[in-house]
Amino acid sequence: xxxxxxxxxxxxxDVVIDVHTHIGLSSKFYYQSGYPYALSFEDxxxxxxxxxxDHSVVFPFVDSTFYVNDSNASKIKTTTKFNDFPYExxxxxxxKEINEIFPEYSRKALPLLMFDPSREQEKQVAHMEKxxxxxxxxxxxxxxxxxxxFVNDLETTGKPILEFARKKQFPILFHSSMHPDDPWASxxxxxxxxxxxxxxxxxxxxxxxxxxxxxxxxxKLDNCFVDLSAFIIHCxxxxxxxxxxxxxxxxxxxxxxxxxxxxxxxxxxYPDTILWGSDTPFNYWIQKYYxxxxxxxxxxxxxGYMEETQLLNRLSAEQKSRIVYKNIIxxxxx
Length: 334
Ligand SMILES: [Zn+2]
Hints:
Blueprint: H1 3-12, E1 17-25, H2 27-31, E2 38-39, H3 41-51, E3 55-60, H4 88-101, E4 109-114, H5 121-134, E5 139-142, H6 144-147, H7 159-168, E6 172-174, H8 187-196, E7 202-204, H9 212-220, E8 224-227, H10 231-239, H11 259-269, E9 274-275, E10 285-290, E11 296-301, H12 307-312, H13 317-333
Parallel strand pairs: 1-3, 3-4, 4-5, 5-6, 6-7, 7-8, 8-9
Antiparallel strand pairs: 1-2, 10-11
The site of zinc ion has 5 residues, from strand 1.
């Protein structure tokens, strides 16, 4: 199905869109006994049918085998070098799986291509251009924490990627962080970037880690949106006062033991800004990581596959329509 045909279907009537899902795999997560580590498009479609989701914005997992040879990356290696530049294999395989293995389901997918703002930018642009001519593509996404790349590089060495997004009128979805030791995906950097580029539509993932300063600023900008991806486990982190969440003095005020209350207050406070996204299959997050002083820690956060939609379906029809449809259409198409 062509992009234009899909645009028409999406604009014709209210549908339920999930703005944040991943398919593909992370061998690093798998070999570290992390979870999740994989999801196929076929399995995503089955989940969508069970949960009543019509379309999903979908992108690869956060890894690229490009980083296998990167000395800063995980010690766990895969055996073959597949990529000359970041996400070469992963982006192409995403689109092949959706369009060539499952053409019967392809209209359910709204794919975004992954990019790295800090490395091999020209090669990535040439490849994304080629892929977006061959297959329907709806935007681009980066998860810069995992690849230690900088959001603000889009204005310097990564400018070719920014120009590509501008030319294609592609929105950009950013993984975000408020962790004091994460200089790569700072939610503050992302909202400031959106302010400097009113012509680029931007989405800040993970509710900007509940940073009220960022949420309020995003709400003032017509081109800036915030998605609720992995909402329930982020509420759990907020209840634990985790370093992954904005510090209490700048945190959106709500009762984080009650995710429904948090979601309702967010949607009512920022009615034109919030987008619903599940982060499927990252509703679970079980991962090991090293701290700066070399200690190996493990996070374990559980959220069953139905919980995010159960929460969503408790909203009023008006609230739900804004975050699963109206706002997402504005983010995707302007
Ligand atoms: Zn995600």
